[in-house]
Amino acid sequence: MGKPSDLVQGTLDLLILRVLSLKPQHGWAIAKRIQQVSGEVLQVQQGSLYPALHRLEQKRWIKSKWAETETGREAKFYLLTPAGKAQLEIEATSWNRLSAAIKLVLETE
Amino acid sequence: MSWTNGMWLRWRSLFQREQVSRELDREIQFHLDQQIAENFNLGMSPADARSAAMHTFGNPTVLKEEAREAWGWMWLEQLLHDVRYALRQLRKTPGFTVTAALTLALGIGVNAAIFTLVHAVMMGTLPLTDPKSLIRLGDTSDCCVNSGTSENGDYSLFSTEIYQRLKNYVPEFEKLAAMQAGFPFRPVVARRDGTQENARSVMAEFVSGNYFETFGLKPAAGRLFFDSDDVKGAPMVAVISYTAWKRDYAADRSMIGSTFWINTKAVTLVGVAPEGFFGDRLSTSPPDFYFPLETHTVISNAAYVHDPDTSWLYIIGRVKPGTHLTPLQDKVSSLVRQWLKETRIFAVEKDKSLPEKTHVVLTPGGAGIQDLREQYESNLRLLMGASALVLLIACANIANLLLVRGMRRKIEMSVRTALGAARSRIVRQFLTESIVLAGFGGIVGIAVAYSGARLLLRLAFSGAPTIPIDPRPSLAVLGFAFALSLLTGILFGIAPAWMASQTNPADALKSGVRGTTVGASVLQKSLVVLQAALSLVLLVGAGLFVQSMTKLQATQLKLDSRNRYIAHINPQGAGYLPHDLEALYRTIEQRFHELPAVSNVGICNYTPMEENNWSNGVQVQGQPYTGRGASFIKANAEYFDSVGTHVVMGRGRRILSACSGGSQRNVCERLSSQRRKPAWASLRFAESSRRQR
Fold it and tell me: DSSP assignment of chain A, as one string?
């Protein structure tokens, strides 16, 4: 599978930021969480999470550190930065507006 | 461990690439392990758990590549790759590489060498504090002691009186310094007291008490001048240049406070000027000593220091921040005009429009008195033009070489295009190769520049004890050379790269032989034509140079330099007074004649072809003064024979004056043709005199 399309990529960023806004997580937990919360509808290819995470870190919307999990293994955890929080709000707003607009189009006879 | 942010990641991904890659591996491994464990817990076999985890994850290699791309150093990786590939290609063809690099090195080196000179002479500033706020009053290299008027009213040379008045009346100048204009023509004789050293003739400049302060200079040792040193009756003091201090006295600090005999007068050395300060102008003979203006009267027996009719000073000032130069120039001009009107020379001046024409032009003073610049500017421009042509030829030559090479690599390019290499990538590849080549040329070129600049400086300053220009290329020159090589690389990289990108892989692979496209041959031909045309221009230029040179060498100056030697004698420096001179000259003649090898002894104030000369207004007795001027040489009876020339009419013995010098000679000849009988003795020299170079 190649690069996710722009739409998917943008959506993935939004989803990651949303998941991280609750608490710091490592990559696998983020993937699981997205699957669970979306009711298994959003089947993101798990691997594409990592380029996205590194991209977000580069944009300084998230930060990372290595820490122990409950099972005692070392994992890389990600945390939302204040800039990331602001970005989440912007993206969520625009997503809501877009989906509302699409909904309106679809519902109009 | 604390949270790391993007900046840190970016930094580490460049400098700790391996480690960051390993971390990414670990991160992904953790993910897979978690997924495998979960699958296993759901009841899968270990093998199934693994393959299912891999399936949901995707291709780790591709994803890692994508993550790496997110770090943002992909371009650097590609660049390094391109450079490595270019180096490999260049190593494969050493003959081509060496030829191309040397051609470029020559082109770039010559340009950088000349730029070093241009930079020093035309753009250079003295090593001073804030050179931009230094302003010179005047724009000509008028010299040296002048008691006439300026013909076009443009003043650059001033009297002590005008200098002192300007200092008081123009508060726009924070500091205003004055310096002797003609010091290169008036060396002093110096000897350190209490030592066995011989008296030496050295360059010395008389400067105002605030001279060093105006330039913002700090002493290397001891102190520099104060205003109180430049007062009548103050103890006579001197500052030595750093170069002379180091060269002649091994930078001995204990000599501060010691006495020097300057023109037989005792002077106390108070300090050393800072390193790198070669005086207020770029000169082949920078001053070894500095003395206060006031001491000029005693040391050089100069009667004109306080004469309001004699101009002998250049003036440089430091303006206060935010001063506008145009109103300042008007103010200075009108003040100088007003004060000059009060002088005697203006009162007797025939040209009544002169007072109105009188003005002073303010010029940047950060580079000092730019007489060297005035002398060499056009020559340097010519040199720069010629060297630019050489570089152009070198570029055309190399472009051609690369083009041919590009043709030969057509099949390689076709294969690469067929394998899916993007055109842009191939163009970039070619450009990288050219730039790497140009870089080599640039590096070798800097070596050429250094030795070339040294050679040029030695030619320009032949015989000078110290060369005030550093031949080491400065940052600006390095930048210039680098920019030049880069530009060259891009220039001659574009054509072959463009040709390569036009390659149709199928055609090239089908024919299987190297073919020439029409575009290439036209381009090649025009490059050859360009090269030939530029070479022709250079050859014609060189031919003209050689011809001028031969002509100059063959010029009949009515002089004979064979078996003739010049000795400069400074009687004043040895303490002789004007009334001693007649006897001294006779002694010199007599002593030289006692040597059996000497046949003639000519004594004159300026030797033939020497730069300096002295001119006065001339009036024939019994006729009205016409304002005509003539330069003259004071000489003894044997002068004409000793320089290998003769007198056209009349007799040459016992004459007191002779005419010489370019346009001035015409005056003499005209004078003598007007009078059938040359009547030298009856010429009267007008009172206003003018000494110039």
Answer: --PPPHHHHHHHHHHHHHHHTTS-EEHHHHHHHHHHHTTT-----GGGHHHHHHHHHHTTSEEEEEEE-TTS-EEEEEEE-HHHHHHHHHHHHHHHHHHHHHHHHHH--
Q: For chain B, what is the mean pLDDT?
A: 79
* Residue B148 tokens, joined: 């006439």
Give percent above pLDDT 70 in chain A: 86
Tens digit of each residue's pLDDT (9 = 90 or more) over B577-605: 888 888 999 999 999 999 999 999 999 88
SS (H, E, C) B590-639: HHHHHCCCCCCCCCECCCCCCCCEEEEEEEECCCCCCCCEEEEEEECCCH
What does the block give as tokens for B80?
């390094």
Q: Using CA atoms, how far apart are residues B78 and B76, in angstroms rounded to an integer?
A: 5
Looking at residue A69, its pLDDT comes to: 85
What residue spans define the domains of chain A?
6-107
User: What chain A residue is nearest to B31 in terms of C-alpha separation?
Assistant: A28
Interchain CB contact of B486 with A (< 8 Å): no
The 10 Å Cβ neighbour count of residue B378 is 9
**Cis omega (within 30 of 0) on the bond before B143?**
no
Distance (Å) from the C-alpha of residue A92 to the closest C-alpha of chain B? 23
Nearest CA in chain B to A44: B56
CB contact under 8 A, A27 and B30: yes
Residue range A47-53: mean pLDDT, rounded: 86
- Which of the four pLDDT bands, split at 50, 70 and 90, describes residue B655? very low
A6-107: CATH topology is: Arc Repressor Mutant, subunit A (1.10.10)
Enter the ipTM: 0.86
CA distance to partner chain B, nearest, from residue A32 (Å): 10
Is the CB of B2 inside 8 Å of chain A's CB atoms? yes
Paired with B189 in beta bridges are: B201
pTM, entire model: 0.60
Q: Distance, in angstroms, between B175 CA and closest chain A CA?
A: 55
